[in-house]
Amino acid sequence: MASNEPGPLSTKYGRPSQSLIWVRGVTGIGLVKWRGLAGSKGLIGAISRARLKLYRRPSHVYSLTVEVDGEAQYLETLKKLSSNGPLSVLVVYDGVVTVHASYDRKVSPRAEEGLDVVRENDSDSYLVESKFIEPMFYRLAVELKPTYAYTVLGTHVAKVYSSNREELSKFGSVLGKGELPAAWRLLKAFLDFRRSLV
Fold this sequence. Notes:
Strand 9 (148-152) and strand 10 (157-161) form a beta hairpin. The model has no long low-confidence stretch (mean pLDDT 84). The protein has a domain at 62-176. The protein has helices at 10-13, 71-82, 133-144, 165-168, 182-197; strands at residues 20-27, 30-33, 45-52, 62-68, 88-93, 97-103, 112-113, 125-129, 148-152, 157-161, 173-176. By secondary structure, the protein is of the alpha+beta class. An eight-stranded antiparallel beta sheet has the order 7-4-6-5-9-10-8-11. Strands 2-1-3 form a three-stranded antiparallel beta sheet, with no helix packed on it. Helices cover 24% and strands 31% of the residues.
């Protein structure tokens, strides 16, 4: 919740903040009950409690994997797989672009039971946020050839490992690990200043 990054089921259920009813945290000015703490990466305050919406767990999850070769095939694959009401459409670049779609029913004889997940690590990574990042993801991957990258359809965010920040900025706004958007940096500065007066 502190990172508010998309997960494998974010296509249907959204990012953690979209399932949030309320959150309570400890800040420099004391306890606050504020949904805005989601995504603050612990830099504005530490989340101590939260209430989330719960969703019924699917009795089965089936996944399809399609390796794409070319931007036109990529866009057609996204369109086709997202038209069947997926739980998730996860696009991964690991030398090749692969689209993984998960459903609560078997939509194809090729579907296998299970959910595809992303590989996370602590290496240099950036979040690239853009309303159009999912359709541009194939171009980002083949032009920049990052070590690893992924996006989850519907989240408008891509996570890209070991790539050049300046080149990434052509695809959207870029945040490095532990960085906050400008508005949150101002809020943090205000809270830090206010705490220093006490």
